[in-house]
Design brief:
The protein is an all-alpha fold. It has twelve helices and no strands. α7 (146-155) runs antiparallel to α8 (161-173), α10 (195-208) runs antiparallel to α11 and α11 (212-224) packs antiparallel against α12 (230-240).
């Protein structure tokens, strides 16, 4: 199968399991193929985001005009409303047709499903007498002071696996997806109590990067775990299939 056909199959979500395997292999081993993939992915993402904002703006403007327009002639007014409604319907159809042509809006799926993971390992109480670096890190994390949280997490020597997970969360909040990915991947290979959670957030990162093949792979790994985000993972897989 030609490389161009593989790329087209990826962006149209029509690759077979064997083709997905070949695609991932080329992505890992062929620098030229990876560069072409990144270029096309970023181009489609930029086009989608630009078109999305343009259509939303037009729809909002038209809706405002419809609401504020007052015609003295009732018959003419009714006619104008019918025209406006038809235009809105056409634009909405164009909108959905556009999404169908370019595929799902992965950035929107990321935004819809992403929630900062709560602190479930280090309860913070006012009566705490030991003000350790770990406590300071989680206090900053809960206060959403992620710069300070990262500084404190980085200070902890020989961190437990859960520290790595929350450090990855901190990187996510700060927008450093690659560092977050590295730590989350580590949490899936070592003895960790956050394996399912790590696969879930990896899937979301790949969604944000419009890498649907890897996102689906991570979501399937979420389903292999016990109960964490199973329903959400199933829904996302259905939307990506």
């Amino acid at each position: 199968m030609k490389k161009e056909e593989l790329l087209n199959g990826y962006f149209s979500h029509s690759l077979t399991p064997n083709q997905e395997q070949l695609f991932e292999s080329l992505l890992a081993e062929d620098a030229e193929f990876k560069a072409q993939f990144e270029f096309e992915k970023n181009l489609k993402l930029a086009i989608k985001e630009t078109e999305s904002e343009r259509l939303k703006t037009k729809l909002k403007t038209l809706e405002t005009e419809i609401k504020t327009r007052k015609e003295s002639d009732e018959k003419t007014q009714w006619f104008n409303w019918k025209i406006a409604a038809a235009v809105l319907l056409f634009m909405s159809a164009s909108w959905f047709g556009y999404d169908a042509f370019f595929g799902v809006n992965t950035v929107e799926l990321y935004a819809t499903n992403y929630v900062t993971h709560p602190n479930t390992v280090f309860p913070i109480t006012r009566s705490d007498t030991i003000n350790s670096i770990e406590r300071q890190a989680f206090v900053a994390y809960e206060a959403q002071d992620f710069d300070m949280a990262l500084t404190n997490f980085n200070t902890i020597k020989n961190p437990e696996e859960y520290i790595l997970f929350y450090k990855a969360q901190t990187y996510l909040e700060l927008g450093d997806l690659e560092k977050a990915k590295g730590l989350l991947n580590k949490n899936t290979t070592e003895a960790s109590s956050f394996i399912g959670e790590s696969h879930w957030y990896l899937a979301l990162i790949y969604l944000k990067q419009n890498d649907i093949v890897r996102a689906k792979k991570e979501l399937k790994l979420v389903l292999r775990q016990q109960n964490y985000k199973r329903q959400e993972a199933k829904k996302l897989l259905n939307k990506l299939s």
